[in-house]
Structures are given as structure tokens and as C-alpha cells.
Amino acid sequence: MSEKQDFLAQTLAYNHIPFPIIIFNQEGLITWFNGHAERIFQLNTETDKGQLFTYMNPEQAALHKQPWESLLESTDPIRFENMEIGLGSGGQTHSTIVTKAFTSHNERFLMTVYETDDSANAESATRELNHLRSGLDDSFMMLYFDKEFLVTYANPHFLKLSKWTPKRVLGKPVWQMFHDGEADVEFVDSILETLKEGQIWNGEAKKATKDGETYWVDLTAIPMQLSDEDTYYIFLEKDITDTKHAQKHLEEIAFIDPITGLENRHRLEQAVNEHIREGRHFSFLFLDIDRFYTLRDVSDTDTENELLIEFTKRLRMYFSDSLITRAGLHEFALVTPLPNWFIEGFLPYLQQHPIYIGGTAVPLTVSGAITKYPEDQQSFVHLIKASYATIKKVKDRGGSAISTLTADDHERLNRKALIEKRLVHALDRKNLQLLYQPQINLSNGNVESVEALVRWNDDEIGVVTPDELIPIAEENGMIHEIGSFVLETACEQLKDWKAKGINLRISINSSIREFRDKDMASTLIEQMKANNCDPRSLMIEITEKFALEAEAERPIMQQMNRLHQQGVQFALDDFGTGYASFRYMLLLPISSLKIDRTIIQSITKQEKMQKMIKGMIQFGQSLDFQVTAEGVETKEQLELLRAMECNSIQGYIISRPMNAQELEKWLK
After folding, report:
1. Torsion 622-626-632-636 (CA) sign
2. What is the spatial distance between Cα 271 and Cα 93, in angstroms, rounded to a whole number?
3. For residue 15, what is the DSSP state?
4. Where is the EAL domain positioned along the sequence (predicted)?
5. pLDDT (tens digit per residue) in 341-371
6. Is pLDDT above 50 for 23?
7. 574 FRET partner, CA 20 to 30 A, in 351, 566, 618, 619?
8. Which residues of 575-606 are buried (b: 16+ CB within 10 A; e: fewer)?
9. pLDDT-above-70 percentage for the chain
10. What single string gives the DSSP state of each residue in 301-356?
């Protein structure tokens, strides 16, 4: 066997799977087999490699109406059911043969798995499985999942690389081992669907450590079904992070956009960093073709490419002394010494030099952002972030403009960067606090509930409201720490108020990321028990986006139902602004609706808005929901809501958010 094939055999996880496995080259000759195949078929390394095999070769494949060439070209596994095969001991058995083609070192191979029944000697099989597990533990990162895809075992190799501890990883859902982007979730779902169908999944996978760092593995996921009721799954992983990084680096350096001939984003970052190291002043120009998807939808691929090529020609003609790169599908970035007035002249230049395709002028415009170094931003990352912020502002105004950072933009970006930096210290030093905004029951005038709102008054940056803090915390991954602080503080406050004879319910806001942690419900229950809190005194507010995602993720629904059974209530917050759905209102344990303040603010301005709000109240009450109106500020708004028989209100007309001591005085 060649060195390439030898390397392949040594690195395949299938070498450890307890089924006979044989690998053939494209001529149908044996190139490798595992120990199980060697024993079952009594194959010999010296005499059988390089030979045809009775139960899988080009001639046998043709007999089963599967040309050998089609097996080699297939991207999906192919099954041969109920094949009669001979054992090395002389007996006969029936087996399913599964074939899977793959490429290694530019050569095509066919792997065959023989699902034989080799359970005659149970004691021997048990010993073999024990040896197998021991060998896997020594060679691979290994995870066991139960039928709900919750971790039941993780070996030391996995714990070391992923930075999890046994206490923290057991019971975690499979999604916790990966990033939570849309593409990542779809990728994990595809693996799980394959496993649920009883098939093995193998390939490269991008995973996340406990701290959110990315690493890559060669993953083999295996379904194990001992009986109809006893199913579990094994993940075998080999770390290939260094290989992936080296491959990515080579691709980034070597890649030139084949359509436009421009250098790519990696070269852009290199050029910017070189300019920064040399202390050179420059303008960073970011251009985004307006309505690109609309232009693309009305054309074919060739027309789309022609459009990009012609646009690139105009960039090169106008910005002849600048570095021009293609930064995305319809995004271009330039490093240029040119002044703003000249850069902004590119828009009329485009109008004077229109792009014609098929004899028709394409109505192409661009939105642009000019960010200066070092006056505006001082690093590549911040130049990119500032550009995206400016582009968004331009597109919100209709596009077809090139804009620079305003004083307000500078202040907003600098404040965001400072918040990200100071938030870590604030959590370490417990500088966050909870304020409480009361809700009044309109039928009896009593204060029965308060909403807990996170406030942060920093010595350097001043007051940071939840509307500003929470999106930043979700973006940088600190939302879990903030959620833990809110939960702990709210439970301690309920305990304190109970001792003082104050009977109030506290509403806290929660995010979908917090509920993806399987320990969420357990942690909350433990906190309530530690502070002797009545679970009915706690309400969790979720958004419509949260509800929509929770409906699709069974572990989240299970946690919500577990808390609901304990007495914890759930409210649908910001109702009317998101993805309203009758389905999740029926499936999730929701008992309250909170109409968003932006809707309430319009209640006195339009008769149609009044009718809509009244309909929302009646709709909620028809489902036995308590309905609360948020953001009530005027007496006129209050009286309209009272006439509509809204259950309760919250807003400045009652009180602004207060700390616990202020609220206690206010209640008196």
C-alpha cells in the first residue's frame, strides 16, 4: 500500500468501528481492511491486499445493477440489502453492505461496511467492546449523548480541548458544543437528522469551546440503538484545527477573486495594517452596491458577473492610485490617499459612465462610507465596524450617497467600545443594580407586580440603560453573566420583601441564549429555594422572537414547562412588534401579554390604532391572558386603556424605575 493510502488508513475513525470494513481503490482492488474484517473473512495482509474481493468488486456491483463507476462518483452512501456472504469459518450469513466513496490525495476510494451479526459469543463481544471503548478514549475526543442529545459522558481529551469540566458539561445539549449562528444551527440539525435516521455521519465540523473559541474536528457521529427504547449517540472527534488554519491561511493568501480580478479581504486587512505600522494617513472607503439582490434576481449568472466586472472597471479608472479589493458579494473596500471631495465625485462619475448590459443601462447606485485613519478609527476592526455603521445610516436614508462619520457617529462608536471594555469590570465588581418599575391593576388600583430592569451607572461612561446594554452583552457573550446577576438579585429581593410583609411579583427579562443552557431551570429553582421564594412571585418575560425559536427547540420548551409546573409564570413582552404566532401561544406556558410601548404611544393619534389595541386586548383575554400596556405616560392614554378594559398598565404616569428602597417608600 502507498504512503498516501497508509496515512488514510491510520487516520480513519472507522478503523475502530465494530463492523468489518474494507476499502477498495478505483479498480476494485483491496487497499485496506480493519481487524474485524480480517477476523470475519480471514483476510491476510500479505496475500489479500491488491486482490479482488468476492462480496464487493466491479463485477458483483454490476450484478446488483450498480455500475462500479456510479459507486465511485456517488456523494451519498449506497446500501445493498440482504446480501448472502460467506464467513471465513466456512458458514454463511446475510448482511447489509453500505458503500461510501471518498477522495484522498486526489485518488478515489470506496469504503464498504458489512453489517454482519457476530454476536454468537456474547462474552467475547463484551470484552471486545470494552477494549474498543478503551482504545477510543486513548485515541479520540469522545462524547456520549442520550436520545434527547444531552451529554452523558465526555472523555478527558474532549474536556482538555473544549475547556469544559465534567460538572458543567454533563446534561448540556449538543447545540452547546457548537456556535449558535444560523448556519451553525442548520449544520448541527443536519447531523442530528442523519443520526435519527439511523445513519452514521462523518465530516469536518466547526465547534466552540466553553469560552466560545472556535476549533475544528474530524467528526464521526454514530447512532447506537440497543432496543426501541434505548438509543444513544457517540461522537468521535480528531482535532484538525492547526490543519484548517494552515489551509485557510494558504487560501487567503493565494486567492484572487476570479470574477473581478481584485484582491480579497485578507489582502485588505494586510494593507491596512501595513499602513498603520508605517504611520501613514489614509481614507478607508467602503462601497456597497444598492439593491444588489434585486439587480441579481432579474438577471442570470453571466449578467451578474458582467455587472461586477464593469463596476470594477469603473473603480479602477476612477481610483487609479488606490488599493481596491472585493470585500464581499456586493461590497468593495479601498485604501486611498484621495480627499473626500474627490471620493464623493465617484457617484456622478457612475451616472456619467453607466453600465450597459444587453443594450440596456443598469440603474446601479452605491452607498459608501469614508473613515479616516488615524482621525476617525485606529485599527482595521474598528474601521470595518465604523464603515458598517455608516453604510447602514446611508441605506436607511435611501442609499446612493457616500457619507463620513459625524460627531454623533464618533460618540456612539466610542461609547459602544468603552461599554464593551468596562462591562467586564462592572460584572467583576458587581457595579450593576436592579431598578423596579411598578405595574398597576386597573380594576382595583393595586400594585401587584414590578419589572426588574438592569441599570449600570459607571464612573467613566455614566448611565447605561437596558436598551443599550443588552444588545451589546448579547453580541459579546456577556448576557449569561448579566442574567445570573438579575436572577440572584431578584430572588434575594423577594426574600427581603417577604420578611417586610411586602407581597409583590417580580418580572425579569430573559434571552434565548440563557435557556439554551440546560442548567437554566435548575439554577433558577435552586435560587428560589435558597431564598425561600414562592415561585408564583416570579415572572419571566420573553420576546416574540424568543418564543418562535423556543417552539422549535424541545429542550427549551421542556425547561419552560418545568418552571411553569413549579409555579413560575411567563409573559410575552413587546407584543405587536415581532413574529406574532397563534401556535407558540398555545404550545408555550404563557399567561400574560405586554403590549409594546411604541404601540401605546400612538393610541391617542389614530382611531385605527385604538381599534387595533382594543383588538389586541380582547384577543389576549380570550386566551385567558392578563394584558399589560407598557409605556403609558399620559392621563388620556390611561383613560382609553381603562375603557378598553386592559388589565394593568406600566409607565411613567405611575412611576419611573426605582431602586428597592425608593420603591418601598413609594408604596407607603
Report:
1. positive
2. 66
3. G
4. 416-668
5. 999 999 999 999 998 887 888 888 999 999 9
6. yes
7. 566
8. bbebeeeeebbeebebebbbbbbebbbebeee
9. 89
10. HHHHHHHHHHHHHHHHHHTTTSEEEE-SSSEEEEEE---HHHHHTHHHHHHHS-EE
- Residue 138 pLDDT > 60: yes
d(Cα 439, Cα 483) in Å, to the nearest integer? 22
Q: What is the mean pLDDT of residues 587-610?
A: 88
pLDDT, one tens digit per residue, over 461-472 is: 788 877 778 877
Query: Looking up cell 435558597, which residue turns up?
Result: 530
The reported pLDDT for the residue numbered 130 is 55
Q: 398 φ, ψ to 5°?
A: 110, -5
Which residue is listed with cell 448590459?
A: 357
User: In b/e form, how buried is each residue of 510-533, taking b as 16+ CB within 10 angstroms?
Assistant: bbbbbbbbbebbebbbebbeebeb
Burial class (CB within 10 angstroms; exposed 0-12, middle 13-18, buried 19+) of 300:
exposed
Closest CA to 99 of 114, 121, 84, 87: 114
pLDDT at residue 129, rounded to an integer: 53
Q: How many helices (H) and strands (E) does the chain have?
A: 28, 26
Give the separation between CA 21 and CA 413, rounded to whole angstroms.
Answer: 58
Q: In terms of Cα–Cα distance, which of 10, 17, 64, 52 is closest to 37?
A: 17
Please provide the size of the chain in residues. Answer: 668
The CA angle 208-212-215, to the nearest 5 degrees, is: 35
Measured CA angle at 501 (ends 495, 503), to 5 deg: 75
- DSSP characters for 68-130? HHHHHH-SS-EEEEEEEEE-TTS-EEEEEEEEEEEEETTEEEEEEEEE----SSHHHHHHHHH
Instruction: Decide if 237 contacts 142 (C-beta within 8 A).
Output: yes
- For residue 53, give the DSSP letter: B
Q: Tell me the pLDDT of the chain averaged across its residues.
A: 84
**What is the bridge-based pairing of β-strands 401-404 and 366-373?**
parallel
598: helix, strand or coil: helix
Give the confidence band of 122 by pLDDT, cuts at 50, 70, 90: very low
**Grid cell 483476510 in the structure block, residue:** 43
127 pLDDT above the threshold of 60 = no
265, 374 contact by CB (below 8 A): no
pLDDT of residue 317: 95
Does residue 506 contact residue 467 with C-beta atoms inside 8 Å? no
Average pLDDT (60-77) is: 82
pLDDT at 221: 92
Burial class (CB within 10 angstroms; exposed 0-12, middle 13-18, buried 19+) of 87 = middle
| Axis-axis angle for helices 466-476, 407-428 (nearest 10) | 70
Write the CA distances from 436 to 433, 498, 613, 633, 658, integer angstroms. Answer: 10, 16, 26, 17, 5
Residues 6 or more apart in contact with residue 29 via CB below 8 angstroms? 50, 51, 52
Show contacts of 454-462: CB within 8 Å, 24+ apart.
Answer: 454/482, 454/485, 454/486, 455/657, 456/423, 456/426, 456/431, 456/432, 457/431, 457/433, 458/422, 458/426, 458/431, 460/418, 460/422, 461/415, 461/418, 461/419, 461/422
Longest dimension (CA), the chain: 95
d(CA 505, CA 251): 57
For residues 492 and 657, give the distance between their C-alpha atoms in angstroms, rounded to a whole number: 18
* Residue 20 near residue 36, CB atoms below 8 Å: yes
CA-to-CA separations, 81 to 114, 115, 535, in angstroms, rounded: 10, 10, 56
Which grid cell is 431? 457595579
